[in-house]
Amino acid sequence: MSTNKIGFAVIGYGGMGGWHMKQAMGELAGQFNAVGTFDIKEERQALAREQGLTAYASREALLCDPAIELVTVATPNDAHREIVIDALRHGKHVICEKPVALSTGDLEAMIAVANETGKLFTVHQNRRWDPDYLTAKTVMESGALGRVFNVENRVHGSRGVPGDWRALKAHGGGMLLDWGIHMCDQMLQMMGPRRLLSLYAQLTYVTCDQVDDGFRVFCRFEGDVTFLVEILTSNFISLPRWYILGENGSAVLEDWGRSGKIRRVHDWENRECVPVQAGVGITKTMAPRDDDTYEDSPLPQFEGEWTQYYRNIFEVIRSGAQPIVTHGQQRRLLRLVEAIFESARTDSVIRLES
User: Fold this and answer.
1) I need a surface site. Which of 63, 81, 165, 337 has the fewest CB within 10 A?
2) Residue 150: C-alpha distances to residues 98, 126, 196, 249, 324 (Å)
């Protein structure tokens, strides 16, 4: 690996911008030289100066500094297209926070300039390294449950939409474009090359009139696999983070900490059971299995190494490696998001990728 550090800057020095810079100044300092920031808020500029960074007087001043090779754009969503294109035209490599754009048209415009300038343009999809996601993905791919036919991926909160620009439609707010982008990306990564055949979506507006404060989308993939993605922000009792069903077993991940289990059936043909009381009736169909027909096992444990993302960026720029997050992946993701909005608007099933 080359030790020639990459000059790094952040445009939009809010919470996420600060997080990116913290990593560049810390664990990634061997590959990146944290140079400076620009933000329209003076208090964020002052913080940058306190941290020993250059707080540029303008975006133009930052982009004209030859010491900077790579810029991360961490502004409100509606500003991504303009700033990314500006940075590319100034000869910078660019990482854009998610969602990369508010439409596929905006994304294509950004990709066109990246191709024209020959600069790296990619998107920060950091939740591909979440330990709970890596656990769920491994369980699905391991064959431990037999053929998996249904996956449910949920995040539940109880605080509504954050009260900043994320609650404003003009800035690209709402939970689909916030957490939804992460979870839809996780779904597409888990499903791999399987074609997404159709989806049906509902948006919720419980705590916010202007943008969605949650959504449910039910997706059907080739191979008879269904996938539910759900974000809700008015839940005071949360459902499990992940729930996976296979022909020979089930798995549940209760929370971010990956508490849960795998249950595998080893005596599937043992169907004899005693009827049980169910409400005011009895049932054999829903009677629980005998303990000796299944076995429980703990979930595999992973520690996600998010820094792999930036280390890949370093190798792309210095050694010509292939980026982990590609234009094709982002095209597919934004098409999915647009289809979710359309399904919710028209209250209809949307058919895709046929």
Assistant:
1) 165
2) 27, 24, 14, 11, 27
